[in-house]
Amino acid sequence: MNAQEPTPRRIVRFGLCELDTKSKELHRNGMRVKLSTQPFQVLVLLLEHAGDVVTREELRVRLWPEDTFVDFDHGLNAAVKRLRDALGETAESPVFIETLPRLGYRFIGSIENSPAGQPTVARVTKWNKKNWSLVAVGAVVCIVFVITLSRLSTKLPLGQMTVLPLVTYSGQKYFPSLSPNGQQLVFSWNGGSGTDFSLYEKVVGSEKFLRLTNVAGAIDFAAAWSPDAREIAFARTAKGDTGIYIVSALGGPERKLLHTDWDARSPGIGALASGCLDWSPDGKSIVYSDSPSAGQPEALFVLSLDSMQTRQLTSPNYQTGDLDPKFSPDGQTIAFIRDTTGGQSIYVTPISGNGERLLTADPSLKVGLAWTVDGRNLVFGGRWLWRVPITGGTPERLPIGQNGCQPSVRQNRIAYTQASWSDSIWRRRLDSKGTPEEAQKLISSTQVDAGPQFSPDGNTIAFQSDRSGVFEIWLSNRDGTDVRQLTHFGVAWTGTPRWSPDGKFVVFDSRPKGDADIFTIDAQGGPPQRITNDPSNEVVPSWSRDGHWIYFASDRSGRWEVWKAPSSGGVAIQITHRGGFAAFESADGKLLYYAKGLNAPGLWKTSPSGGEESEVVGMPGIGFWGYWALVKDGIYYLDNTSEPSISFLNLSTRRTSRVFKLENGPVQQAPGLAVSPDGNSILYTQGSQSNSDISLVQNFN
Known about the structure:
- The protein is mostly beta strands.
- The chain is 8% helix and 42% strand.
- Among the domains are: 11-112, Arc Repressor Mutant, subunit A; 130-156 and 177-253, Neuraminidase; 422-687, Neuraminidase (6 Propeller), CATH 2.120.10.
- Helix 1 crosses helix 3 (72-87).
- 44% of the residues are buried.
């Protein structure tokens, strides 16, 4: 030890901790942590000699006078153990205190913010072997940081907007998040292949990157920078470890803040479809989306980083959920996307939670949301990048950003995911024994094609597609040829077509005035006829076997239930009373089978006139209400308990058998399955993802 001791500072900050040496108070992440006298003395001595070894003898002299009789080894070990507990670490996974067996201890953390006039203790941090790979990568990245930042100003000069490739590594990349000064980027990447996603960090203008997280079987996404750019909050879905985490922007140990229910989201990369958290500009709270309880739609919550208490901000009732929350630059307002069967709408709400306000309810797909720097506009993505004023109005399509989603706006830059994806309709023929033949992609485009239904004679397929720019009803021949558009609403989200028993009409839902209603149209074309006109949402219709009634799901009672109305129009009658969605009548017209709910698993049955309601099978899972088809002797359905497969339930024997495994993933919240009248063909919707890159817009204003 040096004869001349460094002068201790009153306030010492390291990691998420802050020590006041005068008041003897320790705070971790803003919260006071109880620290008794001896652990405090150990910490002060280690900080005074950070990077150097403090021997056990030197600690004994500091903690116990010479005339004190005590079991020194036991007492010191206990003091260090209590100190580690206060700092949130263990001897096996040290963050700040390294043990040197039989010699002593060493402080290995980084001490920050030395006040003027007080000396900074020199440190030579010694890490164990498992840290050296991170050191090597970190050193390279830091060198690049210095070189690059010396060449770039905080804000680029104004000029014409230009788009440059930012992250083009092989594999799938999502959720770009620019640092507060716009110079660094964090993103989610599968490393080139596979279904695990980790967080990576790079400097804008460099190809070097630093891996921040690395947990097998995890999907890490939706990164949000702290206002001082020191830390990054992120979402993780992983078996038993799903929740909100924080990691240093320089890498290192991560810390779990909160457990969440995000496991109920789409499996695999489907979890990456929507953002779910943001860090407040004052650094004191995190807003996030989560289900209040199992089976309920996602709502917004605010987590206080001081008290670690949560407060529910929105209550979306029957909607699919509130997603992509983003703090305004002044921290007083939160913008978010409300996803419903009526489409996706952008709302804003005060941080108090009182007085949410609709900005736009246009039918365009919305994936990702960001505030402009001046707080006057919101940028959102989907098939393009759009901008809408915070006062509301018609969105303006930006001159850049084709296939753009998940925007991140900082300074005069936008980073966004440029992804091309499509859902396609596939076919499997069944031989005389019911054995499936080779899969065939039957109907596909560069856009979304989903919800297939065979006509009663089996010669025509009705389906929904946005290949015209917005979802409409389309028709094709049985073999997928001669694709033609049936509806022409132009501005409404239209879908879930079902044929009348005589094959002359198609019933569907559409949203020409915002709320979803039921319409019919002649299969040869013509003007649609409205069947429902209530100030509520009516969706996923189907015909009774005699053609006299149309079943549909409605939220007019406050939650989704199955109703029916005369096919010629008239007063609707409620059928289910314990939750119901997407109903089909049995071939003999004696029973009504239905999905339990928009966000509930399982298939149920009741009488076409209502009555006792009972469960038939616990599949499909949550969000896959459209992946089942009723035939004369049973039900085909999606079984996603392990690998997604189509199974068959024989209603007479109650036996279940697997028919075939899906080649790609199923699509949540979409009608996905149909069987031909002769039982020889199965149509099903599958998602596909060609690729995704991250692009950068410069000189955005």
